[in-house]
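## retry 2 of 3
previous attempt timed out at serialization; input unchanged, resubmitting
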Amino acid sequence: MNPKGGIVSVADSFPYKVREIENVFIPMRDGAQLAARVWLPEEAERTPLPAIMEYIPYRKRDITRGRDATNHAYLAGHGYVCVRVDMRGSGDSDGVLTDEYTQQEQEDGVDAIAWLAEQPWCDGNVGMMGISWGGFNSLQVAAKRPPALKAIISICSSDDLYADNMHYMGGCLLGDNLSEATVMFAFNTLPPDPQIVGNRWRDMWFDRMENSGLWLEQWVEHQRRSAYWSTSSINENYSAIQCPVYAIGGWADGFTNTVLRLMEHLEVPRKGLIGPWGHKYPHQGMPGPAIGFLQEALRWWDHWLKGKDTGIMNEPMLRAWEQDSVPPDTSYSERPGRWIGESGWPSKNVKERRYELGPYTIHMGEGHGGAHQREGQESALALQSPLSVGLEAGKWCSYAATPDLPGDQREEDGGSLIFSSRQLAAPLDIFGMPVVEFELSCNKPQAMLAVRLSDVAPDGKSTRVTYGLLNLSHRDSDADPEPLVPHRRYRVRIPMNGIAQRFPVGHQLRLSVSTSYWPLAWLPPEPAQVDIYPESSTLVLPERTPREEDARQPEFDEPEEAPPLELHTFEASEHNWLLHRDLATKESTLEVINDQGHFRIEDIGTEVRRSTREWYSTVNDDFISARGETYTERSFKRDDWNVEVYTRSILSCDESNFFIHAQLDAYENDYRVFSKNWEKVIPRDHM
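## retry succeeded, writing output
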């Protein structure tokens, strides 16, 4: 594997010639039609082949056209009919999209698979794959058990819509809740392409803008675990899935815990793969090393859709990139480490080791022997963090396209309570989900804790390895939160995100605890002091014993894909995170720039402009000054078509309520043709 070699574009060597069908309409049971783009191997018109479906709301005609061209053309060139479907209410499909992961969406997916299986070019075997939304609904549609669906690949997805999907982590409202709602606000208000749907495009556009709704409102209203979240959460019934599953994630992504849970709870043939990547397909994975994911996908599809013995199921069930120590950096391109493998999960090769916390220390012997917890100690360490803790946290779901990874934790630690080990006398390997168990009390009924496990180098630089959050009113239940009784002692458990990491000799482990983590997580309604009793608190590490078999892991191929889409760039993309601190007003603002630039897609002659900006601010230590604002610009232009859509969303609060203000303005040929404002007040519910 050559991690720095980049992606090789190949086409001449494909065994199948491919014909692209720009659009077909797939009928649904209620008469609606979903728009699809098809990559059809010519051989399939003589000898039917299996089909692979990707089913997402991100516009096959233009926005994902580049990614679709490199992924689906590659798989089609190796003998699969690839079909990229716009969900109902998105792209060129009929209808209005009113929320994520609805029952309607899943029923449409079942109908689309049945239609594919019946086509003369399909042999009746269908696979489903996708990243993010497409990974989610691959799991959800699989749980509906459509007969033709024989296997899925689910990448960067979740089985738990409440706790592991950009909304609520440990019962804390995530900043990515606003960020993702903004993404969908922009997508849901875009028109279909007149060249695909004809003269009805404008009516479809206005219907979407008027009726798709403000998703941020729905997501903030449902602050507890409830049927709203659980209805489409696979963790409610893992046994519903009856087809083989390949689950893939990255340590820098927000969804990696899903892979570990699916390996543990699914009852079907399954494989898991976790690399060092952010929210990217693994052949484009950053931080690297990237892998030949499309070749790996072919091995999976050939086994389950064509019945070929590719050897893929003879390899370890779960493979993961065990990361080595690196200096803190918000934009590193490569992550050193090694591939490790486990034949099952949970693994007998991973043992939980408990370490007692002392005043500012983690008690770890030279052989990393765990200490026994001592009860009854009364000394407490007081903690009340400034609102600056979290500005170096990075993004809950990193795309690794911006400096959105966590920075040096020393500034964060300055406002935190820290427990450090001695320098390690031997390497320490962990694989799984670390846990902290605290004995604590609080002087207010509402508070949160953020815990971080970091790797501290001999020069003092601190790199975050993993972290966890807990809204203390959710300590026993996300469905039925209860306020704290001030000054009463509680025992709480805070899981951290899964990780595979090697801590080297001479380094230290550091556990950092804070009562704020803004803007990754929304702030409690008022400052609170949490008293932690360290002698009754414990760090639990999933320690793994290195094995000789790790060095014999099969190598992944070099990244490959089909030739890229031809684009003409007018303005390059720009990605950055900027921190503004006004020392006079005491206002701190984190600005996130995600500008995709201005380009023309040459084969359809469409110019596309995409830009998103986000601002997250607080003033001094005023908890109710927390404010998130987002602004998006989207435009499409051809000789016969010129539309622009602008959205603005603001989320703010006081002690009792969240406040939402949103604006939508749409233009055709430089004239504003639609405008709408929203003002919403949503009570805080133990949040």
